[in-house]
Amino acid sequence: VLTIGTGMEEHANYGVDFINATKTIKEICPYVKISGGISNLSFGFRGVMKIRESIHSVFLQHAILESGMDVGIVNAHEMIAYDDLEDDMKLLCENLVFNKTPEATDDMLERTAYERACIDAKKKGLTMPRKPRGKFPNLPRKQFAYDNVQPKPATEPPLPTSEAAQNHTPNPYRNSNITHEKIAAIRAKATNPTPPKIDHCQPSDTYPESFPHFVRGRDSLREYITSLFTSRIAMYDGAMGTMIQNYAKKNKLEEEEYRGERFKDWKCNTKGNNDQLSITQPHIIKGIYKEYLEVGGSDLIGTNTFSSTTIAMGDYEMEDYVYELNYEGARLAREACDEVTAKDPTKPRFVVGAIGPTNRTGSISPSVEDPSARNVTFDELVDAYFEQVVGLMDGGADILMVETIFDTLNAKAALYAIGEYLEFSGLDIPVFVSGTLVDQSGRTLSGQTGEAFYASIRHAKPMCVGLNCALGAKHMTPFVEKLSKCVECFLHVYSNAGLPNAMGGYDESPDDMAQANKVFFENGWLNMVGGCCGSTPPHIKAIREMSESYKPRKLPDVGRPKMWLSGLEDLKVEDVHNHLGLPFLNVGERCNISGSLRFKKLMMSGDYGTAMDIAKKQVEDGAHVIDINVDDGMLDGLAAMQKFVKIAVTEPEVSKVPFMLDASKFEIVLAGLKWCQGKCIVNSISLKVGEELFKEQATLLKKHGCAVVVMAFDEEGQAATEEEKVRICKRSYDILVNEVKFPPEDIIFDPNVLTIGTG
Fold first, then answer.
1. pLDDT means per 10 residues in the chain (759 residues)?
2. Which of 122, 284, 412, 606 would you label with 693, given CA atoms 20 to 30 Å apart?
3. Distance in angstroms (rounded) separating the CA atoms of residues 224 and 299
4. pTM (two decimals)
């Protein structure tokens, strides 16, 4: 009998190995007896007899009754009967003796420290310490008929709820028919020297009707992409910046060329503003597009518009030219794609409107002294992205790609803007989303894991999600694998050509980069592949040739929907068990002014730093979600909610879990929501405000991608009886699911817990 619980991995199986060996020895060596020195087993826990004898009790119960152990050297006076063990102690000992969990030794050491503290407290007449909770077995969740949904093969990625998307309505490419006032206002201030051509439809008989041919205005691009991405690994393009740098090495491309005739007297330097070249040097940009199409063999090319927002163009004082920059970037790509498609109509080429992250971030403070400081708001990001989207679509983009996402809040703002455009236009435009994990931690710059990033943006129903930039393909491998296991839509990668060298360049040759991407193809992880920094048309050609002998990723089967929340990490509510083993989501109540007098005092005094300690403690104590409520007549709730959330998202120990934003006023939860990069729960809405406002609020929350608590209130008041609770919840459900198209798995009903025992 050898010692277990030492912390050394090779010792962890000593107990179970003895038990199993005992049975085998007795089977193959007739009539022998088995003995052992039992105290050896628990030597690591000496000094606390209760712990040692509990371990011995579990060990002997199994060794004697299941394996036939006959003899042992024991302290007979201290022996404890197996059935007399406390349930939690029995579980700890079972885990330790049979090495059932990686944390078995740590859990027993924690219990040992408690028992030792009890001995000391008893000797000194002190208050007994609090008992560790221990581990409880997970209990099964109550099952309902709809839980027994058998997964079915997916035929396409999850669809947006719009009528156009649901019906696969082809985009008519007649943008002149889109006259919404917000879109018209952007066009009205356009700087284009001549009125732009914004219609891009083609005669329906331009090419044959069946796949792989495609005609704009006749065919559904959603259907075409599904066919393309399920038949082979599609090719995206490579780096625009690298190609511009390569051009500059062979040709003059200085300040004068960047300005061109149009901006020769511009008020500040513009060299480095690559997007501007779509206006001043269109032949360079179109030439790069065509190289990727003809040499690389790209099916889709991204527009030269990575920084074409009013926010990013502020560096060059060119905010007024954003519509034109996007229009020209897309128009040149449209021309290049159409020219190459005409040469081989069996391989249509598509324009992907590239939407970059801007040079500001909604989740990260620019001030070391003030974690609540920000240099941009959600609404400012939405306005900037909306203008970019209008220019891209008017220029002839087929697809919109939100890319190089280092802060998911920025991406959510871009997706919100795209959603607004799709709502105003009534179009079905495929949306791609591409995140950037900045290092081997596998997290974005704002701290999210790849899975949390996806959970935060999946409400936008992108057709394709993936990773680009920051890392080479080799370094991306574990993170791509994780995404491939959770992403419900198509998956892409366009990595850098390795990591940057000391000079900021990239050393991977086309063959090197193709080999680095091979692991993605071998494992069937991708539907689209391309290149980012350091890649060129020869790189794309080599990757394409490498990919041709492999099949694309299969869409995952469609099963029962689940509520999928996120902070810095993701959380599926239906898979959660709390510390008591119950299938139950613990929402921490102590950051609620009504739930904690201490928290209230801290908020009233403006001590947000100490208030964060309360939030951290809740997470440590087992809260899966943190409730945040600052409702008080003496507090500016709107300001307090925003400041608390802005600080909380910068605290990893707090923001790793999702938030529940809780307020009696809808504008307060909405304000807090605009500072959360993860998928939150909003608490709450109800029919108390009337059906129309209820639908309006629910629609807005759906656009933000959050889950929602719905209280059992209606126009007549609070539900108190069983019948009222059921009636109001069912009515709310029917409105939300059938009219608003709110995901039913993201609805939480609160049927009102009311006070009992009042007499």
1. 94 96 97 95 94 97 96 94 94 96 94 95 93 82 93 97 98 98 98 97 97 98 98 98 96 96 96 98 98 98 98 98 98 98 98 98 96 97 98 98 98 98 98 96 97 98 97 97 98 96 92 98 98 98 98 97 98 95 96 94 96 96 96 95 98 98 97 98 98 98 98 97 98 98 98 95
2. 412
3. 12
4. 0.90
